[in-house]
Automatic annotation (TrEMBL):
It is an enzyme of class 3 (hydrolase). This is Arginase. It comes from the Bacteria. Belongs to the arginase family. GO terms for biological process: arginine metabolic process; urea cycle.
Length: 306
């Protein structure tokens, strides 16, 4: 049985990077769905740090290509420091988002932690979107479509250098799974940077088991595995509670296999749960599903193993 360190829940109730209001309610929806209790029932030591505080969403149009950049930086700075503190204490931080712009803060902290410890980093980005946009190629200016680009050194200096160094991530440290919505300009950038993307066409062709074997190849005892779980990774037929539904995502069983294979490595050391939007949900159905899948990340198996 895999032994996990103490788990710290960090609520980040903001939707400043998103195109729809509502992701700010995600942390509470996950708590109502029983995330902390479910992990405790699995024998984990869980502490809920409550919610970080930050600026209100001003709901303004883009300025110089970015919406709410000042507010996005403030929230990500707070999350970076909170995540760094948990990692330094030997805890496993779980970001309760909030929109996906927050991955800049959490992953910058993780990358710095890995550099200090001399460990390898592998990021699994479970998402319908590549999130590799820039202000030049997205008309919306929504920063939740830009975090991977920012982490790889493309974007506003306030985010690309959030932790002081840029880039926080090398393209070969990230694997993107479930992708099925990529803008045309974004597609060119993704190819230019050589991102490792397992899109739904590839998943359909070779199956989720082989995809996960490839995505996890090279993960060993010296690897810190960070999972950034955007709930819109899932097919909207089973997970309607997101602001940007993209049909054709992984089924429940495929998603369970993803989580179980990650758990089997025993290397997950930090996690984001983002883009849960209760305003688009029905009776907290999507949050309950997210909790179920996160339990699988921590070793709950739907299979009868001897």
């Amino acid at each position: 049985m895999i032994r996990f360190p103490p788990v710290s829940l960090i609520g980040v109730p903001t939707d400043v990077g998103a195109g729809h209001r509502g992701a700010s309610m995600g942390p509470e929806a996950l708590r109502v769905a029983g995330l902390g209790e479910a992990l405790q029932a699995r024998g984990l030591q869980v502490v809920d740090r409550g919610n970080l505080s930050g600026p209100f969403n001003p709901w303004q149009p883009p300025a110089d290509g970015y919406r709410h950049l000042q507010q996005v930086v403030a929230w990500n700075t707070a999350l970076m420091h909170a995540t760094a503190a948990e990692l330094a204490a030997g805890h496993l931080p779980i970001t309760l988002g909030g929109d996906h712009c927050l991955a800049v803060g959490s992953i910058v902290a993780v990358a710095q932690h890995c550099r200090r410890a001399g460990r390898k980093l592998r990021v699994l980005w479970l998402d319908a979107h590549a999130d590799f946009n820039t202000s030049q190629i997205t008309p919306s200016g929504n920063v939740h479509g830009m975090p991977v680009a920012c982490l790889c050194g493309i974007g506003p200096r306030e985010l690309t250098h959030l932790g002081g160094d840029s880039p926080a991530l090398k393209p070969d440290e990230i694997r993107q799974i479930g992708i099925r919505s990529v803008d045309e300009g974004e597609r060119r950038l993704v190819h230019e940077f050589g991102l490792d993307i397992y899109d739904m066409r590839y998943i359909d062709e070779i199956g989720m088991k082989r995809v996960m074997e490839e995505a996890l190849d090279g993960v060993d005892a010296d690897t810190h595995l960070h999972v950034s779980f955007d709930v819109d990774f899932l097919d909207p037929g089973i997970a309607p509670g997101v602001g940007t539904t993209i049909p054709g995502g992984p089924t429940y069983r495929e998603a369970q296999l993803v989580m179980e294979m990650i758990a089997d490595t025993g290397r997950m050391a930090s996690l984001d749960i983002v883009e849960l939007n209760p305003a688009f949900d029905s009776q907290n159905r999507t949050a309950l599903l997210a909790v179920d899948l996160v339990e699988s990340l921590f070793g709950k198996s739907t299979l009868m193993r001897g």
